[in-house]
Amino acid sequence: MVELMEASIAETARGRKLRQWPLAALLGLLVWGLPALAQAAEQGLFAPLRAQLLAQGLSPAQTDTLFKHPGLHFEAGLMARMLARPEKPRDYAQFFNSTTIKLARDFSRRHAQTLARVQRQTGVSPPVVVSILTIESGLGTYTGRWPAFNVLASQAILDTPLAQAELARRWPASQKATLTRPEFHQRLQKRAAWARSEIMALLKLSKQWGVSPWSVMGSPAGALGMSQFMPTSILLWGADGDGDGRVDLTRPVDAMFSVANYLKAHGWRPGLGRQAQAEVVHAYNHSRPYVDTVLELARRIQ
Description:
Layout: H1 2-55, H2 60-67, H3 76-84, H4 98-110, H5 112-122, H6 126-137, E1 146-147, H7 148-156, H8 161-170, H9 182-209, E2 217-218, H10 231-237, H11 252-265, H12 274-284, H13 288-301
Helix pairs in contact: 3-8, 4-6, 5-11, 6-11, 6-13, 7-9, 9-10, 12-13
């Protein structure tokens, strides 16, 4: 009887283990499979962009390298914060404190010879160049920590329903009504088209530089270097100030020449009045508070 009871208990335990095994296995598969499921979801989100890049001449191998990267993900939260936040004039008040002005003056003295050469070749006032570099990146102290390809790709799919649904989940509750407005959808479509052109420019630059597009870091919008140029701006107006054969906007010389080159190309001339200067700087950043800050900071540091 004891043996029969022991046998029955053992059989019951085995049965319990057999019944528990499929559940444990399923949980294990789910845990280990979550990254793959997440990656598959991201692939679905970015499928339209992948198709567009293929249509523009990228090879399947190139697109696989880009879109199978483990860092690929839709920056829904970042996009929501960037698109929902209105600009306010007080955002720029920080640049008028004594510490910032001293840093800008020290930078101007340290690079006085280069800035004089910049002015001779472009006609752009050194304080304006230094002011822009101060506002854009704190003279290079913060140039951005986001993979430029990923944030540009996130913007490039903002015109797709899947991305818009993810964006809506992260959108501030107080601004939900914005999401249904036709002008907002037009804004997303315009931004997506803009980002796709920036991606193509980034790919061209990364090839010139001999680096992976995934290694290029920038701002939440995808701007690069001390001057925070977008990739298309680097191709059009980036300047090799130190003559090493490469435009590197992490280097002060190239950044200074590039800013001045951009301003000259957009109408800066020696002797411009303040209003004319403001119109040129407005081409650099379409923000009146930004323009006013650039010119006022330039006045204070000269």
